[in-house]
Amino acid sequence: MTFEVITIFPDFFHSILEHGLLKRATASGQVTIRLHDLREYTDDRHHTVDDRPFGGGPGMVFKPEPLFRAVEALQGEAPERSLRVILLSPQGRLLTQAVAEELSHAERLVLICGRYEGVDERVTEHLACDEISIGDFVMSGGELPAAVVMETTIRLLPGVLGNEESCEQDSFAVPAGSSAAEAQGLLDCPHYTRPAEFRNWKVPEVLLSGDHEEIRQWRHRRALEKTWRRRPDLLAQVTLSEEDRRWLESLKGTEL
Ligand code: 9D3
Questions:
Q1: What are the residues whose beta carbons fall under 8 Å from the beta carbon of 121, sequence distance 6 or more?
Q2: What is the number of helices (H) and of strands (E) in the chain?
Q3: Are strands 61-62 and 50-51 parallel, antiparallel or unpaired?
Q4: How far is it, in rounded angstroms, from Cα 148 to Cα 3?
Q5: Which tens digits make up the pLDDT trace of 18-45?
């Protein structure tokens, strides 16, 4: 899989590409991440990438020409490999695990990182296939969001987390790096490690019991409880068993 990142701050990505998952995925050759400096696709002396908005108002807008030229140059390099062009923007559809899953099937993704007040709408309409936001908060550009999209997508690729053998037909298979709760669409249960007592705070007895069935049930209930309290929106998408329902019923009236 290849990511083509178009940005005015290519250096921004160097440190994240040299650590953890992104480093491993690129070093092993499973993923190629190429950084393209938008200024190299300008044709004026000052390498101008932005201009004042028509109609007036504050701030600057990315000009269309350098972005079109950059994407067309990439397409020209390998015309047989189809490009999926994504604009990172606050107006995009929200990045979710399902969106990342969808992107992980692409062969070659172009990520356009905007800056300033925005990008000329003709880029959105006629160059990008897709517009993605990472959440309802204001950032100052698309670089961190692009890194988030790459990280989320790359960890789903077969083999990247060492989970080649986990087979998709097995609906109980939990992908490497995710918990049983996460696989069911729940928030995770609490985790503890040694010491069993720290500053008078004790680890729940059941986790020290060695009773695996009890532990499984405790974890599942804690995951359900946390999801119910904090993210009831997630609970609406989960299929609950009769026992789950009874457990949640027993929590009602215990709102913290
Ligand atoms: C404060 C300016 N905003 C109102 C006029 C518009 C605006 C333009 C450009 C707000 C943010 C940005 C820069 N952000 C991104 O390019 C961006 C982003 C984000 O801010 N939040 C979540 N996901 C994304 S993806 C790209």
A1: none
A2: 10, 10
A3: antiparallel
A4: 13
A5: 999 999 999 999 999 999 999 999 999 9
pLDDT at 164 over 70: no
Residues 150-161: tens digit of each pLDDT: 999 999 999 998
Our measurement of the distance from residue 156's CA atom to the centroid of its chain's CA atoms, rounded to an integer in Å, reads 10
What is the pTM for the complete model shown? 0.93
Catalytic residue flag (residue 158): no
Residues with CB under 6 A from ligand 1: 88-90, 114, 117-118, 133-135, 137-142, 145
Candidates 64, 69, 117, 188; catalytic one: 117
What are the Cα distances from residue 136, in Å, to 56, 90, 132, 218, 250?
26, 7, 11, 34, 34
Is the pLDDT confidence value at 236 over 50? yes
Which residue's entry shows tokens 């008078």? 200
Joined together, the tokens standing for residue 178 give 């995710």
236 alpha carbon to ligand 1 midpoint, in Å?
Answer: 29
